[in-house]
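Hi R.,

As promised on Friday, here is the backbone we talked about, encoded as C-alpha coordinates. Could you run it through your design pipeline when you get a chance and send me back a sequence?
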Protein backbone atom coordinates (compact mmCIF):
# COMPACT_ATOMS: atom_id res chain seq x y z
CA UNK A 1 0.00 0.00 0.00
CA UNK A 2 2.82 2.39 0.89
CA UNK A 3 4.54 1.79 -2.46
CA UNK A 4 1.27 2.34 -4.33
CA UNK A 5 0.66 5.58 -2.43
CA UNK A 6 4.18 6.76 -3.28
CA UNK A 7 3.63 6.02 -6.97
CA UNK A 8 0.30 7.88 -6.86
CA UNK A 9 1.92 10.89 -5.20
CA UNK A 10 4.63 10.98 -7.85
CA UNK A 11 2.05 10.71 -10.63
CA UNK A 12 -0.04 13.52 -9.17
CA UNK A 13 2.98 15.76 -8.94
CA UNK A 14 4.01 15.01 -12.53
CA UNK A 15 0.47 15.64 -13.70
CA UNK A 16 0.27 18.92 -11.84
CA UNK A 17 3.68 20.35 -12.73
CA UNK A 18 3.45 21.19 -16.42
CA UNK A 19 6.63 22.37 -18.15
CA UNK A 20 4.75 25.30 -19.64
CA UNK A 21 2.95 26.24 -16.46
CA UNK A 22 5.78 28.23 -14.94
CA UNK A 23 5.27 26.50 -11.58
CA UNK A 24 8.15 27.16 -9.19
CA UNK A 25 9.79 24.67 -6.84
CA UNK A 26 8.13 26.42 -3.91
CA UNK A 27 4.61 25.85 -5.27
CA UNK A 28 5.47 22.21 -6.02
CA UNK A 29 6.58 21.76 -2.41
CA UNK A 30 3.37 23.45 -1.23
CA UNK A 31 1.28 21.13 -3.38
CA UNK A 32 3.05 18.10 -1.95
CA UNK A 33 2.52 19.46 1.57
CA UNK A 34 -1.18 19.95 0.84
CA UNK A 35 -1.48 16.37 -0.43
CA UNK A 36 0.22 15.06 2.70
CA UNK A 37 -2.19 17.02 4.91
CA UNK A 38 -5.15 15.75 2.89
CA UNK A 39 -4.10 12.11 3.13
CA UNK A 40 -3.48 12.43 6.86
CA UNK A 41 -6.98 13.97 7.28
CA UNK A 42 -5.62 17.38 8.34
CA UNK A 43 -8.26 18.97 6.19
CA UNK A 44 -8.17 22.56 7.46
CA UNK A 45 -4.45 22.81 6.73
CA UNK A 46 -4.87 21.15 3.33
CA UNK A 47 -7.67 23.53 2.41
CA UNK A 48 -5.60 26.60 3.26
CA UNK A 49 -2.66 25.45 1.12
CA UNK A 50 -4.77 24.37 -1.86
CA UNK A 51 -6.67 27.69 -1.76
CA UNK A 52 -3.41 29.64 -1.71
CA UNK A 53 -2.18 27.73 -4.77
CA UNK A 54 -5.51 28.15 -6.57
CA UNK A 55 -5.28 31.93 -6.29
CA UNK A 56 -2.73 31.76 -9.13
CA UNK A 57 -4.23 28.74 -10.92
CA UNK A 58 -8.04 29.10 -10.64
CA UNK A 59 -8.78 26.72 -13.52
CA UNK A 60 -6.42 23.92 -12.43
CA UNK A 61 -8.60 20.77 -12.28
CA UNK A 62 -6.32 19.12 -9.70
CA UNK A 63 -6.67 22.01 -7.28
CA UNK A 64 -10.39 22.37 -7.94
CA UNK A 65 -10.90 18.66 -7.30
CA UNK A 66 -9.31 18.82 -3.86
CA UNK A 67 -10.93 22.13 -2.97
CA UNK A 68 -14.29 20.67 -3.97
CA UNK A 69 -13.80 17.56 -1.86
CA UNK A 70 -12.71 19.67 1.10
CA UNK A 71 -15.66 22.05 0.77
CA UNK A 72 -17.99 19.05 0.89
CA UNK A 73 -16.18 17.73 3.98
CA UNK A 74 -16.81 21.07 5.68
CA UNK A 75 -20.48 20.91 4.62
CA UNK A 76 -20.34 23.73 2.05
CA UNK A 77 -22.22 21.99 -0.72
CA UNK A 78 -22.64 25.02 -2.96
CA UNK A 79 -18.93 25.86 -2.97
CA UNK A 80 -17.98 22.20 -3.37
CA UNK A 81 -20.23 21.85 -6.40
CA UNK A 82 -18.77 24.99 -8.00
CA UNK A 83 -15.20 23.71 -7.63
CA UNK A 84 -16.06 20.24 -8.92
CA UNK A 85 -18.02 21.47 -11.93
CA UNK A 86 -15.03 23.63 -12.82
CA UNK A 87 -12.75 20.59 -12.52
CA UNK A 88 -15.12 18.46 -14.60
CA UNK A 89 -15.22 21.06 -17.36
CA UNK A 90 -11.46 20.62 -17.78
CA UNK A 91 -11.36 16.84 -17.24
CA UNK A 92 -14.77 15.39 -18.18
CA UNK A 93 -13.45 11.80 -18.29
CA UNK A 94 -11.95 11.77 -14.80
CA UNK A 95 -13.64 9.06 -12.73
CA UNK A 96 -12.65 10.59 -9.41
CA UNK A 97 -14.08 13.98 -10.40
CA UNK A 98 -17.32 12.33 -11.52
CA UNK A 99 -17.54 10.45 -8.23
CA UNK A 100 -16.96 13.62 -6.24
CA UNK A 101 -19.56 15.42 -8.37
CA UNK A 102 -21.98 12.68 -7.39
CA UNK A 103 -21.31 13.48 -3.74
CA UNK A 104 -22.02 17.17 -4.40
CA UNK A 105 -25.23 16.40 -6.29
CA UNK A 106 -26.29 14.05 -3.50
CA UNK A 107 -25.79 16.74 -0.87
CA UNK A 108 -27.81 19.17 -3.00
CA UNK A 109 -30.60 16.57 -3.24
CA UNK A 110 -30.70 16.20 0.54
CA UNK A 111 -31.14 19.94 0.97
CA UNK A 112 -33.43 20.71 -1.97
CA UNK A 113 -37.15 21.28 -1.82
CA UNK A 114 -39.43 18.46 -2.86
CA UNK A 115 -39.64 19.68 -6.46
CA UNK A 116 -35.87 19.70 -6.95
CA UNK A 117 -34.89 16.57 -5.02
CA UNK A 118 -35.57 14.22 -7.94
CA UNK A 119 -33.53 16.31 -10.38
CA UNK A 120 -30.49 16.42 -8.11
CA UNK A 121 -30.83 12.74 -7.24
CA UNK A 122 -30.81 11.73 -10.91
CA UNK A 123 -27.69 13.83 -11.49
CA UNK A 124 -26.08 12.13 -8.48
CA UNK A 125 -26.83 8.65 -9.83
CA UNK A 126 -25.61 9.58 -13.32
CA UNK A 127 -22.30 10.89 -11.97
CA UNK A 128 -21.71 7.80 -9.82
CA UNK A 129 -22.59 5.50 -12.72
CA UNK A 130 -20.24 7.44 -15.00
CA UNK A 131 -17.39 7.04 -12.50
CA UNK A 132 -17.94 3.27 -12.41
CA UNK A 133 -18.13 3.16 -16.20
CA UNK A 134 -14.79 4.97 -16.43
CA UNK A 135 -13.08 2.84 -13.75
CA UNK A 136 -15.08 -0.35 -13.13
CA UNK A 137 -12.30 -1.84 -11.02
CA UNK A 138 -12.35 0.92 -8.40
CA UNK A 139 -14.14 -0.22 -5.23
CA UNK A 140 -14.63 3.33 -3.95
CA UNK A 141 -16.83 4.29 -6.88
CA UNK A 142 -18.89 1.13 -6.54
CA UNK A 143 -19.32 1.99 -2.84
CA UNK A 144 -20.85 5.31 -3.88
CA UNK A 145 -23.32 3.53 -6.16
CA UNK A 146 -24.13 1.01 -3.44
CA UNK A 147 -25.00 3.82 -1.04
CA UNK A 148 -27.14 5.57 -3.63
CA UNK A 149 -29.08 2.46 -4.59
CA UNK A 150 -29.69 1.61 -0.93
CA UNK A 151 -30.89 5.07 0.11
CA UNK A 152 -32.67 6.42 -2.97
CA UNK A 153 -36.35 5.68 -3.59
CA UNK A 154 -37.29 3.57 -6.61
CA UNK A 155 -38.61 6.62 -8.44
CA UNK A 156 -35.06 8.01 -8.36
CA UNK A 157 -33.45 4.75 -9.46
CA UNK A 158 -32.80 3.19 -6.06
CA UNK A 159 -33.33 -0.42 -5.09
CA UNK A 160 -31.98 -2.90 -2.58
CA UNK A 161 -31.31 -5.50 -5.27
CA UNK A 162 -29.04 -3.08 -7.13
CA UNK A 163 -27.24 -2.27 -3.88
CA UNK A 164 -26.51 -5.95 -3.25
CA UNK A 165 -25.34 -6.31 -6.86
CA UNK A 166 -22.74 -3.62 -6.22
CA UNK A 167 -21.69 -5.37 -2.99
CA UNK A 168 -21.13 -8.54 -5.01
CA UNK A 169 -18.97 -6.64 -7.52
CA UNK A 170 -16.97 -5.11 -4.67
CA UNK A 171 -16.41 -8.57 -3.19
CA UNK A 172 -14.97 -9.77 -6.53
CA UNK A 173 -12.50 -6.89 -6.49
CA UNK A 174 -11.58 -7.04 -2.80
CA UNK A 175 -12.90 -9.78 -0.49
CA UNK A 176 -12.59 -7.78 2.74
CA UNK A 177 -14.18 -4.69 1.21
CA UNK A 178 -16.95 -6.99 0.01
CA UNK A 179 -17.51 -8.26 3.54
CA UNK A 180 -17.78 -4.68 4.76
CA UNK A 181 -20.20 -3.85 1.93
CA UNK A 182 -22.50 -6.77 2.73
CA UNK A 183 -22.30 -6.01 6.47
CA UNK A 184 -23.27 -2.40 5.79
CA UNK A 185 -26.35 -3.48 3.85
CA UNK A 186 -27.29 -6.05 6.51
CA UNK A 187 -27.04 -3.33 9.17
CA UNK A 188 -29.30 -1.11 7.07
CA UNK A 189 -31.86 -3.89 6.86
CA UNK A 190 -31.49 -4.70 10.59
CA UNK A 191 -30.10 -8.15 9.81
CA UNK A 192 -27.58 -7.73 12.58
CA UNK A 193 -26.52 -11.36 13.02
CA UNK A 194 -25.58 -11.54 9.34
CA UNK A 195 -23.57 -8.32 9.63
CA UNK A 196 -21.45 -9.65 12.52
CA UNK A 197 -21.06 -13.01 10.78
CA UNK A 198 -19.21 -11.37 7.89
CA UNK A 199 -16.21 -10.92 10.20
CA UNK A 200 -16.40 -14.07 12.34
CA UNK A 201 -14.60 -16.26 9.81
CA UNK A 202 -11.82 -13.68 9.38
CA UNK A 203 -11.27 -13.42 13.13
CA UNK A 204 -11.20 -17.20 13.54
CA UNK A 205 -8.29 -17.27 11.10
CA UNK A 206 -6.66 -14.00 12.19
CA UNK A 207 -7.71 -12.81 15.68
CA UNK A 208 -5.70 -9.60 15.27
CA UNK A 209 -7.10 -8.54 11.91
CA UNK A 210 -7.49 -4.79 12.42
CA UNK A 211 -10.24 -4.26 9.84
CA UNK A 212 -12.34 -7.17 11.06
CA UNK A 213 -12.02 -6.02 14.69
CA UNK A 214 -12.88 -2.44 13.78
CA UNK A 215 -15.96 -3.48 11.84
CA UNK A 216 -17.18 -5.69 14.67
CA UNK A 217 -17.01 -2.53 16.78
CA UNK A 218 -18.79 -0.55 14.09
CA UNK A 219 -21.53 -3.18 13.79
CA UNK A 220 -22.02 -3.05 17.56
CA UNK A 221 -22.15 0.76 17.58
CA UNK A 222 -24.70 0.96 14.77
CA UNK A 223 -26.87 -1.96 15.88
CA UNK A 224 -26.69 -1.61 19.66
CA UNK A 225 -26.05 -5.37 19.85
CA UNK A 226 -23.00 -7.26 21.16
CA UNK A 227 -21.85 -4.03 22.82
CA UNK A 228 -19.28 -5.63 25.11
CA UNK A 229 -17.81 -7.58 22.21
CA UNK A 230 -17.59 -4.36 20.21
CA UNK A 231 -15.78 -2.54 23.02
CA UNK A 232 -13.31 -5.40 23.38
CA UNK A 233 -12.67 -5.45 19.61
CA UNK A 234 -12.03 -1.71 19.43
CA UNK A 235 -9.76 -1.74 22.47
CA UNK A 236 -7.77 -4.47 20.73
CA UNK A 237 -7.51 -2.28 17.62
CA UNK A 238 -5.84 0.42 19.71
CA UNK A 239 -3.05 -2.03 20.58
CA UNK A 240 -2.42 -2.92 16.92
CA UNK A 241 -0.63 -1.08 14.10
CA UNK A 242 -3.03 1.00 12.03
CA UNK A 243 -3.62 -0.08 8.42
CA UNK A 244 -2.03 2.06 5.75
CA UNK A 245 -3.89 3.76 2.96
CA UNK A 246 -6.42 6.50 2.40
CA UNK A 247 -9.93 5.57 3.48
CA UNK A 248 -8.84 2.97 6.05
CA UNK A 249 -10.02 3.38 9.66
CA UNK A 250 -7.44 4.99 11.92
CA UNK A 251 -7.19 5.96 15.58
CA UNK A 252 -9.79 8.73 15.26
CA UNK A 253 -12.36 6.27 13.90
CA UNK A 254 -11.61 3.67 16.57
CA UNK A 255 -11.90 6.15 19.46
CA UNK A 256 -15.12 7.53 17.96
CA UNK A 257 -16.81 4.13 17.73
CA UNK A 258 -15.56 3.22 21.19
CA UNK A 259 -17.17 6.39 22.50
CA UNK A 260 -20.44 5.44 20.77
CA UNK A 261 -20.43 2.10 22.59
CA UNK A 262 -19.53 3.57 25.96
CA UNK A 263 -22.51 5.90 25.61
CA UNK A 264 -24.71 2.88 25.02
CA UNK A 265 -23.32 1.43 28.26
CA UNK A 266 -24.20 4.64 30.08
CA UNK A 267 -20.55 5.56 30.75
CA UNK A 268 -20.73 9.18 29.63
CA UNK A 269 -17.46 10.19 31.31
CA UNK A 270 -15.35 7.63 29.44
CA UNK A 271 -17.31 8.29 26.27
CA UNK A 272 -16.37 11.98 26.34
CA UNK A 273 -12.75 11.00 26.95
CA UNK A 274 -12.81 8.81 23.86
CA UNK A 275 -14.45 11.53 21.77
CA UNK A 276 -11.69 13.91 22.90
CA UNK A 277 -9.01 11.34 21.93
CA UNK A 278 -10.64 10.97 18.53
CA UNK A 279 -10.56 14.72 18.02
CA UNK A 280 -6.92 14.90 19.06
CA UNK A 281 -6.10 12.23 16.48
CA UNK A 282 -8.04 14.13 13.80
CA UNK A 283 -8.91 17.74 14.69
CA UNK A 284 -11.24 17.95 11.67
CA UNK A 285 -13.39 14.96 12.63
CA UNK A 286 -16.77 16.69 12.60
CA UNK A 287 -18.85 13.98 14.36
CA UNK A 288 -16.63 14.30 17.42
CA UNK A 289 -16.98 18.06 17.48
CA UNK A 290 -20.75 17.64 17.48
CA UNK A 291 -20.61 14.98 20.20
CA UNK A 292 -18.43 17.10 22.48
CA UNK A 293 -20.79 20.08 22.14
CA UNK A 294 -23.74 18.03 23.41
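Update: got your reply. Pasting your designed sequence below so it's all in one thread:
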Amino acid sequence: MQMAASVLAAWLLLAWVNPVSGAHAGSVAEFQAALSCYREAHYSAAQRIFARLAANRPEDPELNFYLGRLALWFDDGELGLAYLERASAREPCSARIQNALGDAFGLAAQRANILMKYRWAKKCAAAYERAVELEPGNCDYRWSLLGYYFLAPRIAGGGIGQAYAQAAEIRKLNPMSGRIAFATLYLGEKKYALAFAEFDEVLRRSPDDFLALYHVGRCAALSGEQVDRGISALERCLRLPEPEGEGKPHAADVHYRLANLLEKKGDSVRAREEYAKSLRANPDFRPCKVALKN
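One thing I noticed while checking it: Residues 191-294 form a domain with the Serine Threonine Protein Phosphatase 5, Tetratricopeptide repeat fold (CATH 1.25.40.10).

Thanks again,
M.
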